[in-house]
Amino acid sequence: MNGAQAMLEWLAGSGIRYLFGNPGSSELPLMDALVGEQRLQYILGLQEIPVMAIADGYAQASGGPAVVNLHIACGLGNAMGMLYNAAKSGAPLLLTAGQHDQSFLLTEPILYSNLVDLARPYVKWAYEIRRLEDLVRAVRRAVKVALAPPSGPVFLSLPMDVLKAEGEIDLGGSTRVDPRLRPSREAVERAAEMLRGAGNPVFIAGDAVARGDAHRELARLAEFLGAPVYQQTVSGTCNFPSSHPLSLGPLPRVQKVVRKALDEADLLFSVGADLMTMSLPAEVEPVPPGLPIIHLHLDPWEIGKNYPARLGILGDPGETLRELLQELQHRLPPEKQKEAGIRAERIRRMKEERESALRERARKGRDLIPIPPLALMETIADALPPDGVVVDETISSGRGLQTFLRSEDPHSFYGMRGGGIGWGIPASLGIKVALPGRPVVGLIGDGSALYSIQGLWTAARYGLAVVWVICNNRGYRILKERTHALKGVSARTGTYVGMDLEQPGIDFISLSRALGVPAERCDTLGTFKHLFHQALDLGGPFLIDVQVEGNFED
After folding, report:
1. What's domain 3-164's superfamily in CATH?
2. Bridge-based pairing state of the strands 229-231 and 126-128
3. pTM (2 d.p.)
4. pLDDT, tens digit, for every residue of 435-458?
């Protein structure tokens, strides 16, 4: 067989079902070999941004690996923003790109570049395959590295001559590294002793909790200690069920707010989290100085990266939390257990009061036009089916969403870990491919949608039943808010340069229908409710353009 056939044979034999891509001339041997391969489905995207984000969504929702094939230097270049997101989220994916025939690379032909150097900043491993004999070995190694903790993207450059070369090829098997690392007994005992002595512990849950399916273990430990649980400042997944009575939601990317939340803590337990990801510098450190920290993570780079950890533990969250709970059950005296119960009740009441106040604010906006974003988020959360998956890229309009969500399923919410916008529309598709039996709803800002609107065509082509809600405030609201906070000329005049999406307005309905996805616009919450339920029952893709309030408070 030739190199392209061998690569596809190994991927299919290893249980991989999809190849996400956008082809070009340097990928033609691979595309030709796909004609006879029935075990792999090629999912086409119209541009590399949606292709990468579809694969990222699939990898996160399925546990990976996802396999992506792009076209040489410009295709890989187009995908870099979404590759950055995948790297930050730890998505286990194999990214490949075709390369020119090696016989004339020295001439620097059109579209040539050193693809390995181009990809290297955002991947765990990058390599250009030079010989047919090395192809399967490199693919096997790449998939193993992508899945090994800490998981993340890898890259292979595929020269055309290697893909076309023929020979005897030993396909071999595959290797998977068990990610369930267990900490030492000493580390567990030290952590238990620190937690036993804490009077006001605070937990921060990170993406490693969701990737390791450790929500139940974290909930049991938090309940035992009466500790509030926040999600890390920028999450790629739902790291703790929003409906849990000890869940206080995600920490915002605002230093003063985070500092206020942590000021009364006497111990911070970071479980698989990145401490701290912020948007802009500030005079106040989000973590109080001297606060003792236990930092548990599968990635040694993250442990104590920004704030010194009194105790750093390299281990799988689920395995570690189970052992830690067992140790604490032997160490925590009755009086401490009583204190934990009192703390838990106080946190539960505080959570209820916050939600009640937020719902009251949402209630006041239910009949307003344009629709206030908070009222829209409450309506969506209340109407979402119990097994629904939310893909959130609203940036500014989605505030309050996680407070309103009632699902006990911790996989029901996906955020945007890397911050590169344009992720939401295509990521919804990858998540739907991974979870075909579950309703998927993408909540997308109008500005974000325009980075990857081509993804709608892929939904139409493959009949992927995703419902998108475009929160249309006719501008880059998040940028207006932050410019306003500078208290400069824009704040005084109400004029914001380069932040309005009007004159002309953008017709999302025509864009969507032109790409094969039916769409409707709504201006009232009553109309939205009707359309939303109708869209969920449709059995195919649907887009709703919701006109939301674009103004903001000081």
Report:
1. Thiamin diphosphate (ThDP)-binding fold, Pyr/PP domains (3.40.50.970)
2. unpaired
3. 0.95
4. 999 999 999 999 999 999 999 999
